[in-house]
Amino acid sequence: MNEAANEPLSPETSRRSRRDAANRRGAGAAVKGAIPQLPRRKIARAFPPMAIISADEVESIHRASLKVLSEIGMDFNLPEARDLLKKAGADISGERVRFDPAMIEELMKSAPSQFTFHARNPENNAQIGGPNMLFGTVGSPPNCSDMESGRRTGNQADYRKFLKLAQYFNCIGFIAGYPVEPVDIHASVRHLEALRDAVVLTDKPFHAYSLGSERILDGIEIARISRGITMEQMEREPSLFTIVNTNSPLKLDMPMLRGIIEMSSRNQIVCITPFTLAGAMAPVTVAGAVVEQNAEALAGLAFTQVVRKGSPVIYGGFTSNVDMKSGAPAFGTPEYMKACIVGGQMARRYNIPYRTSNTCAANTVDAQAAYESVFSLWGVTMGGGNFIMHGAGWLEGGLVAGFEKFVLDCDLIQMVMEFMTPLDTTEDALGVEAIREVGPGGHFFGAQHTLARYSNAFYAPIISDWRNSQQWEAAGKPEAMQRANTVYKQALEEYVAPALDPARREELDAFVERRIREGGAPTDF
Fold first, then answer.
1. Separation of alpha carbons 136 and 148, rounded Å
2. Residue 137: its H or E element
3. Among 127, 222, 308, 438, which residue carries the largest CB count within 10 Å?
């Protein structure tokens, strides 16, 4: 049995009470040292998403995408997938698949516009689609970093720390892959150990990798065991998601296609996400890159509906640009924002949920990390994002998961959450009587209207420092990264493992240990 078995399985009352107190809005001021958090709540956009191209231009991208799929086509590397597509009416030539536009249009009609993503803790179930937003952790960088130990290869100990942070922070709604790749676990059994840790250390919904059938089938069984349900119930209640990345340009490989078949046939969630970097794997113009993104997404989404009509899907957008001098990916750029917002318009054209990401190319927690992440989140928020991958912790263009960056991003996500809260325009909130009480030339600090709202008048930041310069100097001039370092360590100290039914834990361990003895999954494809 792995070390996660030694994690406490039932809450400790005193620590739970302290955490619950901190989670109540305004508690940060009342509880000494508590990390200020917004309460766990559902996020829904109260205003229409932004549109930066016209409806006619959306249709132009749609028609250009259909032209790519009908005239150029897309390679599907799995014979079984090509057989299914041929039966559905696609034109097959070797590995190349060409789609009649009417076939794509018809298949997209069966994809659901909204669905519920089920967690082992029903309080963490999430509605995907419509105005709803859900933020996940960073997913699967090979390295991690913090102030003390610097940049290092991903490992299980750090992976578990990120899981604990994901459980602790209310703004994180799901586990987006492995928050850092636990490279010290052999690849054949890594998914078994990592998913067991995800189930034991969190009670939020999670992800399995589409790296062949075995990993997906193991992930489905682990998700089923974690909820204590039958497979029939799981097929009615999607409880696992996977990201399927196309090999841009215009290719879907065997492991990813096997993942679609296993997931969609069991009514689990598939997010098709082309990784289209303008100037590298896609045309250098943003419009051209979005056309390629849309064509690849449509091909993958249509295939999910060939496998099983009505199976839940998410339209994934991950288009950005490269630095034309070095070829390095760039994120949080104006081009990324444009592609993010247009991607949302395309997803709404097909009436399905939209996945996008909080990204940056910064190498450390500095001004670049902050402004690129803010730009990304602005595109996510205004572009109509529903399912936000890499919400917290992303650094170095996805090569590093940063502990301090995780905290910074949680602060930014909470700001988005507060921004999403509808404006109170009730008579009392309009404040006419408060203005009357204070009158000309006064101040509102002591007004009854202010005092009644003192503890929760404004958003309480996790790491932002609003002290004056004298107070800041007296505190030792802490910078944002230092404050974030303190917060992430405090969160780990205050972490409480979610309760897990002992019978489910026993079944989980038995399954994982059996699959490990059997050798897990192949490492060649």
1. 25
2. strand 132-137
3. 222
Q: The tokens 């349900």 sit on which residue?
A: 229
As a whole number of angstroms, the longest Cα–Cα distance in the chain is 80
- Spatial contact of 43 and 132, defined as CB atoms under 8 Å apart: yes
Distance CA(398)–CA(411), nearest Å, equals 19
Write 99-102 long-range contacts (CB < 8 A, 24+): 99/66, 99/69, 99/70, 99/73, 99/74, 99/298, 99/299, 99/302, 100/70, 101/66, 101/69, 101/70
In the numeric block, the tokens 């996400």 are attached to 273
The residue with tokens 């399927």 is 244
- Cα–Cα dist 336/393, whole Å: 18
Global pTM value = 0.92
In this predicted structure, the answer to whether residue 11 has a pLDDT above a threshold of 50 is no
> Which amino acid is present at 226?
S
pLDDT tens sequence across 335-357 = 999 999 999 999 999 999 999 99
Comparing CA positions, the residue from 116, 172, 139 lying closest to residue 417 is: 172
Instruction: Return mean pLDDT, the chain.
Output: 92
Which two three-digit tokens encode residue 404?
A: 């301090």
The rounded distance, in Å, linking the Cα atoms of 142 and 387 is: 23
Radius of gyration of the chain (CA): 24
Reported as a single tens digit per residue, the pLDDT across 394-453 is: 999 999 999 999 999 999 999 999 999 999 999 999 999 999 999 999 999 999 999 998
How is residue 106 written in tokens?
Answer: 């018809």
What span, in angstroms and rounded, lies between the C-alpha atoms of 383 and 361?
20
